[in-house]
Write a structure and sequence with these properties.
The protein is of the alpha/beta class. The protein contains 12 helices and 17 strands. The protein is globular, with a radius of gyration of 22 Å. It starts with 5 loop residues before the first strand and ends with a helix. Bound molecules: uridine-5'-diphosphate (UDP).
Length: 374
C-alpha cells in the first residue's frame, strides 16, 4: 500500500485539535491540521482592535485544577493570573456572581452564612422540591426563589431559548454556590490569561505543523481522507454524516463588538444582564483581560461586546450543546455509525464529543487521546 502523506489529519484547529497535533508531532507523527475558519484557535481566537486584545468569540479565562494541563499550557505562553469577578445587573441593580454571601447580602441584607441558609432553606421548603428533575428545580433548591427569579431564570431562558423546566439540571451545577464572601467565579487553583492573548498559545501549539485555514473538510472529503492514515474530526458528528439520523441541537450566539470613545465603559470585565426584557445576556469589556490592566485602562477608548443568544442554524456557529437525554442518545448513535462507516476517524473535542467543555477539558481530552492512539 502506498504510504500516505500524513499520519494524522486533524479537522479543526481549536484547542483540542492544536493540542493533539502538538503531541502527535512530538512523537514523530506527520500531521496536517485544517480549519474552515480564516484562522486557527477555534473560539479562543483573539483579534486586536485599537491596541486592545478582543476575545472574538466570547470571554475566555483559563482555569484548571489539572496540574498536567496547567504545566502543559504554560510551556507555550506566559499566563498572567486572572480572577474573574462577574457582576449581574437586573432592573438597574447590581449583584455579585457567582452566588455567594455578597449576593445574598445584596438580595436580602443577610450578613452571615446562617442567615443566608435560613432564607434559602425557607424558600426551598416553600417550593417543595425533594429531588430536582430540571434546571428550575435545581436552582430553587440551591439558592431559593428570589435568586432564581432575579439572576437565573431570565438569563438562562434567553441563553438556551427554552423554559428552565425543560433544561437539564447540570447546566447550573457549573456555577459555585458559596455561603461565604468570595466573588471568584471559579474554584480552580490555577486561573489566568496568556499574555498577548490566546493566539500566542495556539501558535505555540501549532509551531512546526502544517495548518491550512479556510479549508473545509466536508467540501472534499475524499481528497482529505486520502491524505492521512487516521483522521481526528473535531466538528459536529451529525454534520459529518449529512444529518442522516437527525440534527443535534445547539444554541448559538451573535457577538456585537463596538469601540467606544471612553476609557472605561462598565467598570468590570463582564456584566450579565439577567432580566428577560434585555435582549443580550452579557456585556464584555475586553481591556480588563489585559496583562497590564493599568496601561489598558489609561487608553482613551475601550472595546465592548454584547452577546445576543440566537437559534442555531446553517448560518450560525454551534456554541452550546443542548445536552439533554435525547440529544445525547442521538450523538451516541452517530458515534456508533462512525465506528461502522468511518473506522479511521475519531470524533473528539468540544463539538465532536458534543460536550460543554471548558478549555482545560479540551486540552486534557486531547492529551489523553494522544497518549491512547499516537
Ligand atoms: N447562569 C445564570 N445567570 C448568570 C450566569 C449564569 O443563570 O448570571 C446560568 C445559566 O444557566 C448558564 C449557566 O449558569 O447557562 C452556566 O454559566 P456560565 O457562566 O458557566 O456560562 P458560559 O460562560 O459558559 O456561557
Amino acid at each position: 500500500m502506498k504510504r500516505k502523506e500524513y499520519n494524522y489529519l486533524i479537522v479543526g484547529a481549536g484547542l483540542f485539535g492544536a493540542t493533539f497535533a502538538c503531541m502527535a508531532r512530538r512523537r514523530g507523527k506527520r500531521c496536517l491540521v485544517i480549519d474552515k475558519r480564516p484562522h486557527p484557535g477555534g473560539n479562543t481566537w483573539c483579534e486586536e482592535a485599537d491596541g486592545i486584545i478582543v476575545h472574538r468569540y466570547g470571554p475566555h479565562i483559563f482555569h484548571t485544577n489539572d496540574e498536567e494541563v496547567w504545566e502543559f499550557v504554560n510551556r507555550f505562553a506566559t499566563f498572567t493570573p486572572y480572577t474573574l469577578n462577574t457582576l449581574a445587573c437586573s432592573k438597574g441593580k447590581l449583584y455579585s456572581l457567582p452566588f455567594n454571601l455578597h449576593t445574598f447580602y445584596q438580595m436580602w441584607g443577610v450578613t452571615t452564612p446562617a442567615e443566608a441558609r435560613a432564607v434559602i432553606g425557607r424558600q426551598r421548603r416553600e417550593a417543595g422540591i425533594a429531588a430536582p428533575r430540571n434546571l428550575e428545580e435545581q436552582a430553587l433548591s440551591l439558592v431559593g426563589r428570589d435568586v432564581y427569579e432575579t439572576l437565573i431564570k431570565g438569563y438562562t431562558e434567553k441563553q438556551w431559548g427554552r423554559p428552565c423546566r425543560e433544561l437539564p439540571a447540570d447546566i447550573i451545577k457549573r456555577l459555585p454556590v458559596r455561603f461565604y464572601f468570595d466573588n471568584n467565579y471559579f474554584n480552580d487553583r490555577h486561573q489566568g490569561i496568556p499574555d498577548g492573548g490566546y493566539n500566542v498559545l495556539v501558535h505555540g501549539l501549532l509551531e512546526g505543523i502544517e495548518c491550512r485555514t479556510r479549508c473545509n473538510y466536508l467540501d472534499d472529503r475524499a481528497h482529505f481522507d486520502a491524505l492521512a492514515d487516521r483522521i481526528v474530526y473535531t466538528g459536529p458528528a451529525d454534520e459529518y454524516f449529512g444529518f442522516r439520523l437527525g440534527r443535534l441541537e445547539y444554541r448559538s450566539l451573535r457577538f456585537v463588538h463596538e469601540t467606544l470613545p471612553v476609557s472605561c465603559y462598565q467598570g468590570n470585565a463582564i456584566v450579565n444582564y439577567t432580566a428577560a426584557d434585555v435582549p443580550y445576556t452579557r456585556i464584555v469589556e475586553h481591556k480588563f483581560f489585559a496583562a497590564d490592566r493599568a496601561a489598558a485602562l489609561s487608553l482613551p477608548h475601550t472595546v465592548v461586546t454584547r452577546e445576543y443568544p440566537a437559534p442555531f442554524g446553517p448560518a450560525s456557529e454551534p456554541y452550546y450543546p443542548v445536552g439533554d437525554a435525547e440529544n445525547r442518545a442521538l450523538h451516541a448513535s452517530y458515534l456508533e455509525l462512525g465506528r461502522r462507516l468511518a473506522p479511521r476517524t475519531v470524533f473528539a473535542g468540544r463539538l465532536g464529543s458534543y460536550q460543554y467543555y471548558d478549555m482545560d477539558r479540551a486540552v486534557s481530552a486531547a492529551l489523553k487521546l494522544s497518549k491512547e492512539c499516537v
